[in-house]
Amino acid sequence: MAEFMTRRKMLALLGSGAALAARPSLAVVSTQAEAPLQPFTGPGPNPYWNSVGPYVTYPQKLPLQRLTDRPIQLETPRQYFTEAFTPNAAFFVRYHLSVTPNEIDLAAWRLKLEGNFTKPMELSLPQLLHDFKPVSIAAVNQCSGNSRSRFQPRVAGGQWGNGAMGNAMWTGVRLQDILERAGVGRGTVQLQFEGLDHGVGPVDKGSGRFMKSLDATDAVLGKAIVAFLMNGEPLPMLNGFPVRLVVPGKFATYWTKHLTFIRALTQADNNFWMNPAYRIPDTPGGNVTPEAMATGKIKTVPIGMVDMPVRSFIIEPDGSAPLIRNMPAQIRGIAFSGRGRVTKVEVSTDDGKTWQRATLGQDHGAYAFRTYTHLWTPKSAGTFTLAVRATDQTGSVQTEQAVWNPGGYLWNRIERQEVTVLSA
Ligand SMILES: Nc1nc2c(c(=O)[nH]1)N[C@H]1C(S)=C(S)[C@@H](COP(=O)(O)O)O[C@H]1N2
Ligand SMILES: [Mo]
């Protein structure tokens, strides 16, 4: 019977039995063309959670989803986000330049403090490890362009799904302790950070060195650390071995990997990676329209001027298997904010019409992932749309409002997951 139905459908599509016999493969093509393709990476009702690249395995890494290979950009698959701490081997990777270090001679390596310091100096790794008091902080490293593929209209740049983020326990030396030792000179307006990677960068932009700067007056400098451990282990090479800058609450673009140069600047940094790259409209929420942007009158500021907005994610269920009516299902995932700890996570099982408070997991500090769980027993069969929204300490709550800016930054709309419930 089933075979007959299929055959009849194919015959209808092809118009005649003779054509079917002659070219059987056409039937498959035609049937697929009948149903519109799901949008893989947004926008759309239920885009893939991750990007769509193939799984690739780099040294010290589990199979991750490749966005580009030069520069190396790898996304963390969804299943790793059920836990508060992202395993080092699963942590996403983002570079801008094609030449990245494969090995580092630790005996020769120095952290160089240059420019307007009263005592410019070079610190060896043993000095960093022994001369300063180590501190630890759990903090989320999230790419400014995380979830960029959701933007509508689409914007240029890596079409990340949601996996350009990760939380780790970072251990290292307070940046402030290092700066004090070198003595930040009078008239220093910014501190610039640079690693060991290089390359040509975007053609003709003078951008072959990835340099990022923070204002000398930015309070975040007091929270930043020069980290040599990630979840208690040396950093994977691709995540910045031997040391990287950790800037709690700020987007990852300031979290310089392979940190080797710290420069005290007496003039604001205007290199390509500060301007025009990584800038947001100086508007509420960094939001703007393509039309307004096209006027050329919108003022922009470095994305470092803002902290990461509150976000939350549904990790399970992921829609890959049906739920069963009257059987309890665990809805779980993570939430975080760069602006203050997550105070509330709410889950909806009716597409955002009503909300229930989820149970929060262990508090690992204001800058970490906070896990949540919510037990749901579907009472009927059918298709349901789950949604999740988080609130942070500042009272900021996720909304249905989709942000738009030309860089594809700051996405934090309420996330959804469609699930099917069967009647057992
Ligand atoms: N040296 C160096 N540091 C860097 C970058 C880079 O290209 N080079 N990219 C930044 C950006 S934009 C991101 S998203 C994070 C990614 O960190 P990860 O690769 O450890 O996940 O590194 C930041 N630090
Ligand atoms: Mo990034």
Automatic annotation (TrEMBL):
Transmembrane segments: none annotated. PROSITE patterns: TAT. GO terms for biological process: sulfur compound metabolic process. Keywords: Metal-binding, Molybdenum, Oxidoreductase, Signal. Its cofactor is Mo-molybdopterin. GO terms for molecular function: heme binding; molybdenum ion binding; molybdopterin cofactor binding; sulfite oxidase activity. Residues 1-21 form the signal peptide. Residues 306-414 form the Moybdenum cofactor oxidoreductase dimerisation domain. This is Twin-arginine translocation pathway signal protein. Pfam families: Mo-co_dimer (PF03404), Oxidored_molyb (PF00174). Residues 100-273 form the Oxidoreductase molybdopterin-binding domain. It comes from Pandoraea thiooxydans. The lineage of its organism: Bacteria, Pseudomonadati, Pseudomonadota, Betaproteobacteria, Burkholderiales.
